[in-house]
Design goal:
Radius of gyration: 21 Å
Distance between the termini: 51 Å
Number of domains: 1
Largest sheet: none
Shape: globular
């Protein structure tokens, strides 16, 4: 088996998503990582870890450039960040396509399907964080006053987070699961680390939040809520080692349900984006669990939707941004 110290030290997901400086600086390019696939002791586990190494090298490069380009003028920022997001999105698509071909060599059907599912989950997670990092570089948190580029980044993050939720519920063909009905990814939570629990809870809170903030049709948000409930019910079957994240997931669903009741009462407004937040929606918009504030650096929980008329601009200036 290959050196896990080398592999794990290069994965650096904790640094990327924890808001820390990467542990090690890579002296290689992402795709040179694949030379290790020819190692005599390379296993299916190594393949999964090596794909994560390459993915996080791509992510680290993107985040570094976004931070660097947020120090010049706003117009220059936007052009540079737009170009970086476009280039990185292309790199991520190539990463998914090429590593999907690699894992098709896995002889066991269930393990092959699980490996492919993990690639799609990691791909959508990378897209979520990439687009939200691009928005955060602008310093604007209120969706109601964002420009078209910033709103496009939010929309792309929401689309990726919606796919991410769907992937969490994809079923397994494992012979040991009755009728092949067990969600393959969620079944692994029994053995996983708190980082994966945190990502799972955050991703669901995020997709529900973005759906409400972007004023999606109530029927669409209700569909997301149904899927979120399914995740919650499936995780009840798993040995709960990380109660706080399970509670965050449950609270997120409850707060979103209350917010949706607030918002649905304003559906007769001709322009839904102008709907004013009710108390429950304001509570949901402000929900930021301590774990996501102090332990991780997951982007997007600072976003809000505060439509303001010019007559209200100066009254609410402190909350506008």
């Amino acid at each position: 088996m290959m050196s896990y110290y080398w592999i794990v030290s290069h994965i650096d997901s904790f640094s990327l998503d924890g808001g820390h400086v990467p542990v090690m600086t890579s002296r290689t390019t992402p795709r040179k990582i694949r030379a290790l696939l020819n190692h005599a002791e390379c296993t299916s586990v190594d393949v999964r870890l090596l794909s994560q190494v390459e993915l996080n090298l791509i992510r680290t490069d993107a985040y570094s450039d976004i931070i660097k380009n947020s120090s010049s003028s706003l117009l220059e920022d936007e052009d540079a960040i737009r170009a970086k997001v476009h280039d990185t999105t292309t790199e991520l698509s190539l990463w998914l396509s090429e590593w999907s071909r690699v894992v098709t060599d896995e002889p066991t059907l269930h393990q092959r399907e699980l490996a492919l599912l993990n690639l799609h989950i990691q791909y959508d997670w990378a897209l979520i964080t990439l687009h939200l990092k691009a928005v955060s570089a602008s310093g604007i948190e209120n969706i109601a006053i964002m420009n078209d580029f910033q709103k496009e980044m939010i929309q792309r993050a929401k689309e990726a987070s919606t796919r991410h939720l769907r992937h969490l519920l994809e079923v397994s063909t494992c012979p040991s699961s009755p009728s092949g009905s067990a969600p393959a990814y969620l079944s692994t939570f029994k053995w996983t680390m708190d980082y994966v629990w945190a990502k799972g809870a955050f991703s669901i809170l995020l997709v529900l939040r973005l759906s409400v903030l972007l004023r999606d049709p109530v029927s669409h948000t209700l569909g997301l809520l149904r899927d979120a409930h399914r995740v919650l019910e499936e995780l009840k079957k798993v040995t709960i080692g990380y109660i706080p994240y399970f509670q965050i997931l449950q609270t997120s669903i409850e707060k979103c349900e209350a917010a949706l009741m607030d918002y649905s009462t304003q559906q007769d407004i001709s322009n839904p984006s102008l709907a004013v937040s009710g108390p429950a929606e304001s509570d949901f918009q402000g929900y930021a669990p301590n774990q996501f504030t102090f332990e991780w650096d997951f982007p997007g929980l600072n976003l809000k939707h505060m439509p303001l008329g010019w007559q209200d601009l100066f009254l609410d200036i402190d909350n506008l941004f």
